[in-house]
Amino acid sequence: MTLTTRTAPGARSAGSSRAAMAAALLAAVAALHLLVSGQPLGAITGLLDGAADGQAEKIVWELGVPRLLTALLTGAALGVSGYVLQATLRNSLAAPEFSGVNPGAVLGILGGLTLGLFPADSAAGALLAALAGGALGGGVTWLLSAGRDPANLVVHGLLGSALLAGLTTMLLAYQPSRFGNALRWLIGSVEGRVWEHLAFASWWIAGGIALAWACSGLLAVLAPSDDHAASLGLHPALGRAIALAVAIALTAGAASLAGAIAFVGLVAPHVARRLGGRVLAAAVIGAVALAGADSLAQLAGHLLNGTHRLGVPTGVITALAGSAVLIRLGRSQ
């Protein structure tokens, strides 16, 4: 007798409903982001109609849309990276910034700029430097926690992050004149990215999210315990190495676009799990969270400086909001 499995109509309709809700949420946040950026509604509608010939429409297309896509891509990458780290390390406080990966990626970018390895506007150079630095940061954390329970890796990640932050401070002290340029990498900002940066980083982040989604089964096996993974025929160390490589690649892609954006990778996975979602849900929630945070940053800039633009880095907003969530999570441990 042959058994066939079919997807229940209710499951298909539930999945379609969630996809429609995610699309509607992304569209609403994107519209809000473009409106808060100060662009007139006529310019936005003209862009949607394909009539981007006027100056206002060109400004939206060349400045507003790249900034929005930078926020969405960066948030999605961090959300998925945090989800992978939390599932793999079995720690609800695991996040790119607490595992040495994000500080290492920023150190790699600043180190490459200081040594003149790539120009400041090089998208490929920033990504490769972030990847090398992220791997270094993850490696330092891994060495500090060698032979110990992976669930306690966050503690060693904080130690590794402190070491990497010290090296970054040394770089800034070595060339103080670069501090103004380094500030956007240290705090995190989605401003100033253009289509060239997005064209290079978008495929990297999309590919990383696709790999994380393909590893959903691997993450589900690793999440309970190493014994559970071994009983199902998976080598825990090998599976963890694959998952961490994906997380490092996604964090490097995010850092190459926006620098050290904090707490999105911590919060988005928690919200995704509460909503019953996994990798793709973490990507959508991370994208929405960072685009919303950047909208608040732009709004704060308008309010604080009247009619003139005062740049408020997006990383400031995520740090303030994420600190409250971190305190809540810390008390629940």
From TrEMBL:
Keywords: Cell membrane, Membrane, Signal, Transmembrane, Transmembrane helix, Transport. SUPFAM superfamilies: ABC transporter involved in vitamin B12 uptake, BtuC. Residues 1-22 form the signal peptide. Its main location: membrane. InterPro entries: ABC_BtuC-like, ABC_transptr_permease_BtuC. It is found in: Cell membrane. It is a multi-pass membrane protein. GO terms for cellular component: plasma membrane. One of its GO terms (biological process) is siderophore-iron import into cell. Belongs to the binding-protein-dependent transport system permease family. FecCD subfamily. This is Iron complex transport system permease protein.
